[in-house]
């Protein structure tokens, strides 16, 4: 089934205790699309870049059969740039620089051929733009949304309006607390689900993720990785794996959601093994299945 992905497309400059990489391809929708593409053969990207983006990067999406008809290339514009620095605790990072550039005037136009997409993944962008995308899709089956503290702190009312229109929210634990003004995550989940999304996933960085639905809570573990080089994009890669798997199954039953979280976690665990989206470019389906199995094994008890 078809997946529509909207979000930022960026050049990232990343510093971690293990090294630095400058002007690496990044952005929320880059990670979501590359990850979803391992599961769905119909991934459609909507976004904006400048003329500095380069044919090589466009070809990277095309070579994977990711549809870029909805990617606007602005003549003489500059691509969104973001810089971040991680310390030894890779769960926290400092944003060093955000240059919105062409993203500042982004007006998402959904090409006619995308309007029938059944699974919509709204990556982390302005909540007004997220709503504008939803308004152009005729009959989505599932609308997934990601957001971040930047929008919770700066545009809370707009974000709340967007949340009324989404089915599934993916958010990290500190953002869930901030959005709900509730320190306890179980209570926070109740508050957030009352804002709109009936399915809520709270990511806890290297400690796994929690799924809240009408059926209760499901806890997914995190894979204890030995080599974490760069956590950038892990959250988006998680969302991409999740929506890709849901679209492949074409249902969002409790079982599919639970397995989707484990596939999303598996994809995120690969993402952090190298700088930028590098590791997402050369994965095999066998590696993904093996990692999924490792996630299952993590909390399996055989008597
Ligand atoms: P994640 O590590 O999953 O939170 O996502 C990292 C990606 O988010 C990076 O590739 C950045 O380019 C992108 N990003 C950072 N800040 C913003 C922002 N304010 N709006 C949109 N995308 C952003």
Would you spell out the secondary-structure blueprint of this structure?
Elements: E1 3-6, E2 10-16, E3 19-26, H1 28-36, E4 43-50, H2 55-63, E5 67-74, E6 80-86, E7 93-99, E8 119-122, H3 127-134, E9 142-146, H4 149-154, H5 156-163, E10 168-172, H6 173-180, H7 185-194, E11 199-203, E12 209-213, E13 216-220, H8 234-249, H9 254-271, H10 285-298
Helix pairs in contact: 1-8, 3-5, 6-7, 8-9, 9-10
The structure holds adenosine monophosphate.
Adenosine monophosphate (AMP) binds next to strand 2 and helix 8.
Describe, in plain words, how this protein is organized in 3D.
With about 300 residues, this protein is an alpha/beta fold. The protein has one domain: Ribokinase (UDP-N-acetylmuramoyl-L-alanine:D-glutamate ligase), CATH 3.40.1190.20. The chain contains ten helices and 13 strands. The chain has helices at about 30-35, 55-65, 125-135, 150-155, 155-165, 175-180, 185-195, 235-250, 255-270, 285-300, and strands spanning about 5, 10-15, 20-25, 45-50, 65-75, 80-85, 95-100, 120, 140-145, 170, 200-205, 210-215, 215-220. Strand 12 (about 210-215) and strand 13 (about 215-220) form a beta hairpin. Helix 9 (about 255-270) packs across helix 10 (about 285-300). The longest helix has 18 residues, at about 255-270. It is globular, with a radius of gyration of 18 Å. The mean pLDDT is about 95. Bound molecules: adenosine monophosphate (AMP). Adenosine monophosphate binds near residues 98, 124 and 235.
């Amino acid at each position: 089934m078809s997946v529509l992905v909207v979000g930022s497309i960026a050049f990232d400059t990343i510093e971690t205790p293990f090294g630095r990489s400058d002007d690496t391809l990044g952005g929320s929708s880059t990670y979501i699309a590359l990850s979803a593409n391992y599961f769905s053969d119909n991934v459609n990207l909507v976004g904006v870049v400048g003329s500095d983006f380069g044919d090589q990067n466009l070809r990277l999406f095309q070579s994977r059969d990711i549809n870029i008809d909805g990617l606007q290339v602005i003549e003489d514009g500059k691509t969104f740039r973001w810089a971040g620095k991680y310390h030894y605790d890779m769960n926290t990072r400092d944003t060093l620089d955000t240059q919105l550039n062409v993203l500042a005037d982004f007006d998402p136009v959904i090409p006619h051929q995308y309007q029938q997409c059944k699974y919509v993944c709204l990556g982390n962008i302005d909540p007004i733009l997220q709503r504008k995308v939803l308004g152009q899709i005729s009959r989505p089956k599932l609308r997934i949304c990601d957001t971040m503290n930047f929008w919770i702190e700066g545009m809370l009312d707009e974000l709340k309006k967007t949340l009324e229109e989404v089915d599934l929210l993916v958010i990290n634990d500190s953002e869930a607390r901030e959005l709900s003004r509730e320190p306890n995550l179980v209570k926070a989940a109740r508050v957030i689900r009352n804002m709109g999304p009936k399915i809520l996933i709270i990511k806890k960085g290297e400690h796994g993720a929690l799924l809240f639905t009408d059926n209760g809570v499901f806890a997914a573990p995190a894979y204890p990785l030995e080599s974490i080089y760069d956590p950038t994009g892990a959250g988006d890669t998680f969302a991409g794996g999740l929506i890709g798997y849901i679209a492949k199954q074409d249902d969002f039953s409790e079982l599919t959601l639970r397995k989707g979280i484990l596939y999303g976690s598996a994809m995120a665990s690969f993402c952090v093994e190298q700088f930028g989206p590098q590791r997402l470019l050369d994965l095999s389906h066998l590696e993904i299945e093996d990692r999924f199995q490792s996630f299952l094994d993590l909390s399996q008890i055989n008597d």
